Amino acid sequence: MPVDSYKFLPRSFRDGYEKTPMQANEAVWTPLTTPVKEATIALLTSAGFFLTASQEPFDVEREKREPNWGDPTYRVIPRATQQSEVDATHLHLNTDDHREDFNIALPLRAFASLEGEGAIGALADDNYAFMGFQGGDTSPWQETYGPEVVDRLKQANVDAVVLAPA
Amino acid sequence: MPVLARLIEAAGIPTVLVTMMPDLAAKFRVARLLGVEFPFGHAFGMVNDPEMQLAVSRAAIDLLAAATEPETRVDLDIEWPVDTRTAYKAWQPSEASPIVAFNQQRREEIEAKRSARS
Questions:
Q1: Residues A150, B13: C-beta atoms closer than 8 Å
Q2: Backbone phi, then psi, for A112, in 5-degree steps?
Q3: Contact, A134 vs A72, CB < 8 A?
Q4: Looking at the partner chain, which of A64, A97, A159 has a beta carbon nearest the beta carbon of B41?
Q5: A125-145 pLDDT tens trace
Q6: What is this structure's pTM?
Q7: pLDDT tens column, B56-102
Q8: In this structure, which of A92, B15, B28, B51 has its CB flanked by the most CB atoms within 10 Å?
Q9: B118 pLDDT band (50/70/90 cuts)?
Q10: What's residue A40's pLDDT?
Q11: Chain A environment of B83 (Cβ under 8 Å)
Q12: Of residues B30, B31, B64, nearest to A36 (C-beta)
């Protein structure tokens, strides 16, 4: 059964998404050259997670003043991060579930299990959190913060990335 | 998020995008797409349900291993175990987001001007 992309979406949003034209002229493709069982995999979420002891929350105060702006920065979330160390800033979601179990958006626990059973080579040491609302302007992601994360992934010899929007 | 998936893929690192809106993500022509029929914020499943989260994660790496060409889409056959109406309400913020509130206010102002004219 195909997934219904609009099942949980308010009806007022549906029309705009359905009418969104194609956003790219060409597909992108990099083949996986390392077998999954040997691959180091990093995770990336847009749920707005940050480490309460050492990182700033995403700037939702500016978003409240400028409703069409979203904080384009990112936070590094280490693989051993515990629930008590994480908070979430995201004005477009109820974040209660993320405060109870962030693994629903950034599944560090599941990928550590996959590493333990040998299904993947390793979960990367560093994983990444963005905040998904960008007000339609993703140029800071494309020009600044995305390339920064790519550099970090390459320095860490990451073989593949699993991303999930919030 | 599809923008970041494309950027990372184009830089030479394979990606899998796990998404609640695969129809929209497909318009970005990403490399590998795992669709899940789950409420927003819950791409990997239910709170405190490690088995469900592991099943989705496993499906993501299976797709990574199996895909041989761009724009490979797999739709996950796992049903959200909460009734749709409850789940629909639960993921939404208690207050409208700034952009939703701003647009609503603008609509109301336009409507008020129209009413004043007629």
A1: yes
A2: -65, -35
A3: yes
A4: A97
A5: 999 999 999 998 999 999 999
A6: 0.95
A7: 999 999 999 999 999 999 999 999 999 999 999 999 999 999 998 89
A8: B15
A9: confident
A10: 98
A11: none
A12: B64
Q: How far is B114 from chain A (nearest CA, A)?
A: 21
Of the candidates A9, A97, A163, which has its C-beta nearest B1's C-beta?
A163
Residue A66 with chain B: CB contacts under 8 Å: 98
Nearest to A107 among B10, B17, B57 (CB): B57
**Residue whose tokens read 């320095």:** A155
Query: Chain A within 8 Å of B94 (Cβ-Cβ)?
Result: yes
The per-residue pLDDT for range A23-76, each reduced to its tens digit, is 999 999 999 999 999 999 999 999 999 999 999 999 999 999 999 999 999 999
Cβ-contact B81, B33 below 8 angstroms = no
Would an 8 Å CB–CB cutoff place B66 in contact with chain A?
Answer: no
Domain boundaries defined on chain B: 2-81, 93-118
Q: For every residue of chain B, which 3-state class applies, written as one string?
A: CHHHHHHHHHCCCCEEEEECCHHHHHCCCCCEEEECCCCCCCCCCCCCCHHHHHHHHHHHHHHHHHCCCCCEEEECCCCCCCCHHHHHHHCCCCCCCHHHHHHHHHHHHHHHHHHHHC
What ipTM was estimated for this complex?
Answer: 0.96
Please report, for residues A113, B5, B89, the alpha-carbon distance to residue B32 in angstroms, rounded to integers and kept in the order given: 22, 9, 30
Confidence (pLDDT) at A112: 98
| Cβ-based burial of A22 (10 A; exposed 0-12, middle 13-18, buried ≥19) | exposed
| Mean model confidence pLDDT for chain A | 96
Cα–Cα nearest to A134, from A87, A78, A86, A66: A66
Measure Cα distances from A158 to A126, A127, B76, B96 in Å.
Answer: 10, 10, 25, 38
